[in-house]
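Here is one such protein, fold included:

. . .
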Amino acid sequence: MNAESETDRDARKPPAGVAVVVIGYDDAAHVTDAVRSALAQGPAVREVVAVDDCSTDGSAGLLDRLAASEPRLRVIRRRANSGGCGTPRNTGLDAVTSPYVMFLDSDDVLPPGAVDALLEAAEGAHAEVAGGLCVRRELPSGREVPWQARLYALLAVVPHPARRPRLVHDTLCVNKLYRTGFLRAHGIRFPEGRFPYEDVVFIARVLAAAPRIALVPDRVYVWHVRRSAGRLSISLDRSGVENWRARTEACRQAYEVLLGAGQKELARAVRAKFLDHDLRMYVRELGLRDAAYRQAWWELTRAHLAEYDADDWARNPAAPGRLIGRVVLASPEPCDLPRLRELAARPARLCPPYARAADGTPVWSDALPVSLEPLRARPVRALPLAVDAELRPCAGGTRLRLRLHELYGRVAQAGPESVEAEWLHRDDGGVAVRDTAVPLAPCPSGSEPAGTAGSEAVVAQGPEPAGRAGSGAVALARGAEPAGAVALGPCARGAEPAGTAGSVRGGAWSAEVAVDLAALSALGAGTWDLRLRIRFRDGVSRDVSAHALRGAGLLRRSAVPSVRHGLVLVQPYATHSGALALRVAPGVRGVLSVARARLRRLLH
C-alpha cells in the first residue's frame, strides 16, 4: 500500500474558515456596506456575525433583510446598549463557530483579498495571529494614511512577540486574524461595558499569551475617519478630558497585563509607545482646549507618568516624548504649551529659548531647568531642529524665508550647508513639488533674515512671471524637475524674528526659496505640507518641518494674479502642531471648490 503523501492529505482537508464579527450601534448609513465587504471576501469567510448593540435607527432591520438572502450572515440583537465596543465583540466571539475570527466595525470595510491574505499567512506560518496593513481613509477627501506602515513593510513571521517589541505600537484589533481556539484557550476577551480604547487592552492580552505571529504587507482593513460626523467615534472624540483619562487607563492596564505575564520588555515598550505616540498626539492639541481641560489633563498626565521608573526614562532619553514627559513632571501647572506643541510635532522641533544652567548644562528654560543634556549625544539626523518659516505670496515671486536655529552647538558642529524645500500634497502624498537645494548662510548673532524686520504682506498687483524657471514642474513620486530657487545672503543685523526676541543663543542660518505657485496650482485646489531637508558637511541630512512664524501680514489669505488661472488664492497657515502649510485655490473654479469643500465638511 502506497503511503499517502502530505500534499494529498492537505488537498483533502476542508479549507479553514473565517468568521467576521461586525459590531454596530445606530449606524444604518454604513453597517450594510461593512457586512457586504466581509461577505465579498469569498468562500474563505464561512460566517459573518453582525452584533447590533440595541440600535434605535433601524440598523437591525436592515441587517435582518440582508440576512434573509445571505445564509452566511447571522444577526444578533443585544437587548441593552453596552456603551462601548468590547461587549458586542465578546458577544460575537462567543457565537462564532469558525477556526479563525476577525473583527470589523460598522463604519469601516475590508478591502478585497484581505481575508485570503491573512488566512494564507496564518496557515502557512502555523501562526495563531496574522496581521496586515490598515489604512486610515479621511472622508470626504479620500486621503489615505497607512497605520504603522513600518511594521507591515515586509512579509515576516515573528515566533514570539518579544522578538518584535514594536508590535505594541499597533493597538488595533481589526487588522488581524486570530485563531479562535487560541483566544478561547487563553480566555482572551475585550473589556466589557463603556471602556474606550478596549483594543489596547485586548492586544496586550493577545501578546501576553505569546502567539506566533505572521505579518503581511497587504492592505487588510480600511478605517474610515469621519471627523465631521454628527457623532464622532469613541477614539476620535478627544474633546473631553475623560477621553484622556480612558486612554491612560488603557495604557496602564496594557502595561500591567504584559508585566504580569512576564513580558517585561514588551511592558516597557508599552510605556515607551505612550510617550512617543499618545502623549505627543494630545500635546499637539492641548492649546486648542480651555483652561479647565488643560489643568485636568496636566494633573492626569503627571499622575500617570509618576508611575514610570528610572529605567523607563533612561531608554532613549533624548526622544521628544521623554523630554515632554519630564517637563510635565517637573511643572505642577501647565506651562510652555506652544513650545511643547512644537516638540510634539513630527518631525519634532525644539524651538528657542536654548537655556543653560550655571555649569553650562543645556536645560529646558531658566524657569524650569529640566536637563536636555541627552541632546548632546543624539545623532544630528535625529535632532529636533527648529526652522522658522514665513511665506509672503506676491505676483513678483512668492518667497519662502527660512531660518535654522543653533541647538547647543550641535548644528555648527555638523556644519549645515544647504536646505531643500519640498511641498507634499495633503491628499496625495505621492505628488510633490521640489525646489533646488540652496545654501544656508550664517546669520550674525541677534539678527533676522534680511528684509523681514517689520515687513508687511503685499498683495501682488501684476501677473506671475511667465516662463519662470521651474514653473509648472510637478513631481510625481519625487520624480520631476525642481523649481527655481535663490540663496539669501547673510542676515541683516537688527531685531530677531517676531516672537523670538532674546531667544537666539549661539547663531542661526538662513535661506530664501522661490515658491512655484504655478506648479502648486496645477492640480487645482488643495493643501500642501512643507518639508525641508537640511544637508550637513559630512553628507548627513535631516528632514524637518518648519515652524510657521506669526506676525503682521503673515498667515493671511492673498489673491495672486496668474496668467494661467486669472488669480490664485493662497493661504499660508499653521497646522495644529505649528508647522507651515499652504492652501492653494486657482481660478474661479478653485474658489468654488473651496466653498464646496467647506460645505461638504459641514454636511458629511
About this structure: Residues 109 and 329 are 41 Å apart (CA to CA). Residues 1-12, 448-490, 492-505 have pLDDT under 50 and may be disordered.
